[in-house]
Prior knowledge:
Elements: E1 2-4, H1 11-14, H2 16-26, E2 34-37, H3 51-60, E3 65-66, E4 69-78, E5 94-99, H4 101-112, H5 117-121, E6 126-132, E7 136-143, E8 154-161, H6 165-169, E9 175-181, E10 189-190, H7 200-217, E11 221-228, E12 234-241, E13 252-254, H8 271-282, E14 289-295, E15 317-324, E16 334-337, H9 344-350, E17 354-358, H10 365-376, E18 382-390, E19 395-402, E20 405-412, E21 424-429, E22 434-438, E23 444-449, E24 452-457, H11 469-479, E25 488-496, E26 503-512, H12 521-525, E27 528-530, E28 532-540, E29 569-573, E30 592-596, H13 604-611, E31 616-618, E32 630-635, E33 646-648
Parallel strand pairs: 28-29, 29-30, 30-31
Antiparallel strand pairs: 1-2, 2-6, 3-4, 4-5, 4-6, 7-8, 7-11, 8-9, 9-10, 11-12, 13-14, 14-18, 15-16, 15-18, 17-24, 19-20, 19-25, 20-21, 21-22, 23-24, 25-26, 27-31, 28-32, 32-33
Amino acid sequence: xxxxxxxxxxxxxxxxxxxxxxxxxxxxxxxxxxxxxxxxxxxxxxxxxxxxxxxxxxxxxxxxxxxxxxxxxxxxxxxxxxxxxxxxxxxxxxxxxxxxxxxxxxxxxxxxxxxxxxxxxxxxxxxxxxxxxxxxxxxxxxxxxxxxxxxxxxxxxxxxxxxxxxxxxxxxxxxxxxxxxxxxxxxxxxxxxxxxxxxxxxxxxxxxxxxxxxxxxxxxxxxxxxxxxxxxxxxxxxxxxxxxxxxxxxxxxxxxxxxxxxxxxxxxxxxxxxxxxxxxxxxxxxxxxxxxxxxxxxxxxxxxxxxxxxxxxxxxxxxxxxxxxxxxxxxxxxxxxxxxxxxxxxxxxxxxxxxxxxxxxxxxxxxxxxxxxxxxxxxxxxxxxxxxxxxxxxxxxxxxxxxxxxxxxxxxxxxxxxxxxxxxxxxxxxxxxxxxxxxxxxxxxxxxxxxxxxxxxxxxxxxxxxxxxxxxxxxxxxxxxxxxxxxxxxxxxxxxxxxxxxxxxxxxxxxxxxxxxxxxxxxxxxxxxxxxxxxxxxxxxxxxxxxxxxxxxxxxxxxxxxxxxxxxxxxxxxxxxxxxxxxxxxxxxxxxxxxxxxxxxxxxxxxxxxxxxxxxxxxxxxxxxxxxxxxxxxxxxxxxxxxxxxxxxxxx
Length: 652
């Protein structure tokens, strides 16, 4: 009916707490000695032993005797507590003190009777632990990974001075400390300054031990611990699977207002999710999207079955974007997935005047979700991905509200927000008039065909990117509900309506700038993208592909902060390609500026430049200014336009 935790204790026989403490003890972790009393099938008293068993029980308790009493912690060990789905932390009783044997028996019964009727009805049974009491100097709880972000590179420690029973029961807050692991090396743990005067080496030792437990078990854990008041010796008092870090069951379902309550908490605030819910609410078309929840343990059960997905009539590929965690190693994780299993040769045969830029990352969604699991496994216990159908629009673009007006930027094909193509710029007033029309000529368009990104030559008669004013105004009217806050840009596509042959808008994505755009229509027309002024050497950037792959970069990627140049530079570039973000970390923001031959006010790089207060302008003709000259870039003064904003400075 009882046994030492030195033995292998089964959950069904002795309860979960006893099971996990015996596991810790058998694997060499420092756990106070304890005796586990077996769970009972009925309501008989748990210490009603026969005489021989009673004497044996007293003998096994002998190490706990102190001054003719037993100095112990009497703790619950229910079969339902400390489970991955529900911990029951603080739900059942714990009794601490020095007891004569009769008093100890009553304390054991008190803990055993804390099993409530509802838990009993669920099949839960109660065992009891009698554990040597440690008089604590410090105590608390530590999660082997961050329970909020699910990051394996962070541990979260809660600590109080003295006994931790009030902390565990929720009656006391304690101090929360986030510990970070550098370069995924458990021994490289960053310990921040703590208000609680707990020794730093104790914190580091605790972190190493719980990371070792996590590695042995293969899942995150939640560990109660304490240090002995006089010696400072570290003890582990309880271990259980950490709840909430793994999805109970990997799922896949379409995003809609009907399924909103199924969306995980760490994904429900993603703009990609809220945009779809908003689109459904205001009845604006958007491609079908699915939520896929993935566990990152490396098993075949980590991934949901995607066979329920049916290819839509307009679908030419899928975009799979991980929205939790938001980035992995500073980059957004996104894949293009084919939906028709086309070969590269087949796509090349279909292209008359073009080339393949990139192939699909995967040819099946199932394989793609395996990659999501494997990539996120490096730093997270679980992931949430959004699977979105990709259409093949005639035009795509970005729209944003500026005061009472709407600015729209358009190009043929895809990738307008990346700054990878030339765009036309229009400003439509809320009253329905066209206030600005800057038409660009687009020689190449980027399309997505069965997951392949292709660049196609645009026929000369179609190179002027223009639309009737009525189409622009109708597009602005339909998309207006998404840009009311004046800080949001909405990405959209225009597809041919098969019935009317008109172009109809649908929503693709959105981006949110830190502040409202500080530009008026006149300033945009004069070439300003981001306000400011800088003097520096004019440096020409001929080929952005040598800097980075813009199609593989994202607005939310973290740029390098490594400052390697102390000189002021004005970069001269073809267009505001997002690949140019790689240059931003090379200079102080006060010592860099950009001049673009073809401009965009709404692309991702333009947003980043405004947030960093880096001046940028559009100037198509700069034939009289030579790279290497020192120039003043003026993106502030009124009354200037185009190349007037770049002034060569004579050497003195």
